[in-house]
Amino acid sequence: MLMNTVGNGQWDIVGNRTTLFSKDIGNEHRWTIDFELTLRRRWTFYVMNLIFPIVLVSGVNCVVILLPVECGEKMSVSVTTFLTLAVLMTQIPEDIPTNSDSICYLAVYLIVEMTLGALSIVLSALQVECHHRVSLRCSRT
Q1: What is the mean pLDDT of residues 23-52?
Q2: H, E, C per residue of 31-43
Q3: E strand or H helix at 20
Q4: Which domain holds residue 35?
Q5: What is the pTM of this model?
Q6: Does residue 15 share a domain with residue 82?
Q7: Does 72 lie in the same domain as 28?
Q8: Position 130 in a domain
C-alpha cells in the first residue's frame, strides 16, 4: 500500500494500517481516515557515529594511565581523551531525539567516562610531578 514512499536514513517502515470510518451527523455524512505507521529506527548510524567512537576513546581513557611518565605525552593524551569525550557528549543531543521522561544511557556512560578521564588527568599530573621531583632530587645529589 505504501509504494510511493520516499526512503529515510533514520527510519524503516515496518508496517501500516489504514482504517476508514463513516459517521452520520444530522443530515451530513462524514468520513474519517486513520493512518497508522509502524516505524523501526535504523541502528547502524548510531553504532558507527556514536557508540563505536565512544568505546574506542573509553579504551584509550583506561589505558592512558599505563603510559610511562618518561614518554612525555601522558598528560597530552589524558587531556585529549577528556576533550574528545566532551565533544562526543555534545553530539548526543544532536543525534538522539530529546525526551524528558528518561535519560539516555549513553549520556550517563559518557558522564562516567568523563569523570574517569578527569581522575586520570589528576593522577597523571601527580605521577609527572612526583617523577620530576624525584629526578630533580637525584640530579642535585
Answers
A1: 85
A2: EEEEEEEEEEECC
A3: strand 11-25
A4: 11-41
A5: 0.66
A6: no
A7: no
A8: yes
